[in-house]
Amino acid sequence: MSSNLVQCKQLVAKAVAAGAKALFLPEASDYIGKSATETVSLVRSVSESTFVLGLQEEARREKLAINVGVHEPAQGGKVKNTLLWIDQKGNIVQRYQKLHLFDVDIKNGPVLKESNSVEKGMSILPPFETPLGRVGLAICFDLRFPEISLALARMNCQVITYPSAFTVPTGTAHWEPLLRARAIETQSYVVAAAQVGAHNEKRVSYGHSMIISPWGEIIAKLGGQWEEPEIATADIDLDLVKKIKTEIPLLRRKYDQIFKCGDDQLLTNASDIYPEL
Ligand SMILES: O=C(O)CNC(=O)[C@H](CS)NC(=O)CCC(=O)C(=O)O
Fold first, then answer.
1. What is the predicted ipTM?
2. CA 151 / ligand 1 centre spacing (Å)
3. Fewer Cβ atoms within 10 A, N terminus or C terminus of the chain?
4. Domain extent listing, the chain
């Protein structure tokens, strides 16, 4: 955990040198356990976590907002997979708990049961003001559930963050198209800071951190090999968010416009998708 703090401090220094207003760090930046038992045994509350306290200190000193994924204690001997927003004064002002847990059993691929050690979150938080615009929070596997990003879009977010530690097989197949789809359908910037390389003999992360524009273009990208802590930087242009939302209005579209144009067959299923119809 102390070496993770050292690496995050290197990233802070790079972000400051680049003139960034905010730094987005990956999911589980404090540590990745080898097993459910280790994950639970390493957890600290934020007020006792040298990792979190260290980052708060960095944020305060450098006047840099920091978005970081960590673990927090939960009921029943489990942990929370949490995403913190630390403001430029070093205060924790937002805290999101991962909704969807990564329980998978892929043939010749990863077998992971996050719910063995992690308690799932229950709420989507309203996007909040930051120096970059209104940010909506989600974590890693949440990326596969567009309900979250669409809810954030309806609450008028401008940036969505998906700090991650994707596996290599699933990342190779799905990471980029999912991130681009979330940006396109929400017309928001997507910032996806990713862990990369080997954590232990059992876990390797895919990397390829990306920043996607609300038009769906990859505007910054890192690689998939671990070398040293690296940042990708991009300008967040809120006028572009507005322009795209004006040019292609998605949010205020009435359902009958969507479903009544053209093929009447579509109407049969519309109420399944939009129960309020
Ligand atoms: O283990 C920790 O402490 C941190 N948490 C993670 O790394 C989580 C749970 S194992 N990873 C993912 O959700 C990967 C999702 C993914 O790879 C996909 O959706 O394809």
1. 0.96
2. 22
3. C
4. 2-236, 241-277
